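As a warm-up, study this chain.
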Amino acid sequence: MKANFRHQRAFSIFIVVLLLSCGPASAVETRYQLGYLLNYQSNIRRTATDPKSEWINTLTASMQATEDTSSLNMTLDASLQRLFYKNKSFSDRTVANATGNVLWTIIPERFTWTVNDYLRETVIDPRNANIQTNRQRTNTFTTGPDLIFRAGRRDTVILGHRFIDTYQEVTNLDSQQNVSNLTWQHQLSPISILSLVGAYQDINYDAETLPDRVITDTYLRYDMARAVTTFLVELGTTEVRTVGRSQIDGDRRVFSVDYQITGNETLNLRVSDQILEAGNIIDAALTPGNALADGRFLTANVFREKRVTLSYAHGGPFVTLNLSVYTTARNYFQDATLDNQLDGGTIAVAYTVSPTTDMTFNADFSRRFYPTDGRQLDYASYLVGITHVINPQLTLTGSVGLISRRSSVPGQDYDNFTASIGITYDI
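Now compare it with the structure written out below.
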């Protein structure tokens, strides 16, 4: 019964959209698409020996909905795919993806209510290949209010609460969370704000074998925004109390700076050292599909993460470029075998060939090292894509790419060449 209820709630955002769009004064803008995609993979099972090629026929129905009024801001991006495997490497299957966000302003600058829903496929075991049998449906539903109180011209108090329900189809990590935040903001100057933040997170797992826990964060935050530079600094502490286990205490340190090099170039540096709780899909929902084998949402562990990310963005009339390099070290408190060092980067280039044709290039590379047993995993993917608008209703797409994995564990290397061609019709 609980699983069925979760699946119904997974599509709650669709119900919200339907109700809004049926109203007489609705300002919802919607787009609907039907599509077909033919995809070829040279090594569909991603095995080191005896690779098997596959042709996949995919039928897609998707929709996007937006509303932006004084009282309601809503976005929805959802799709439903049916995949048919010609050589029957896997069983035919249906895949649903959705990202929905609703911000309801009940009293302007005083009282708002937020609803978010993320439905995705995620990797079950990050140490194995990301193939169909190693994926599961995962949904995170979040809702709650924010209350804002003004105390004079320079001081603001913000009280927020979120209820978070996480469902995972295979792994037994379903949970409900109640997260409360109390923030005091003081306007130091026209360009700087000092905040004192207290956050309380109560996590209850459905499985009796997983201990419930409470995480408390207390920190100072400093924000400054100049003409070309913005700074963010967070300094504080984190306390983790887990049923039946010793308490974990640690520092929280975050630093971020954005520098506007020119009118269309930006450089960002972010350095963080903090204690985090695994089991959350929200980060995964914002990453490319090939980056899902991250481990963030696959355990009920608590870990300390030290991360440095350097990003560069260039936006021009014909070419956009995004570069990112990072290094991350994670040390788990309950299971040291999960400790790992991850280094990598991404490249994304978009080029406007003509008013009706765009080309893209995406590359993703990483190296993950597990110090407890010396295992190393190198991953790389390259994809070149083209989009051609035939007319306002018909769009033609195509791509070629390569996914490569090298592992220190014998028998886990593979290469997979991919190619696709598709057409989309806007209803």
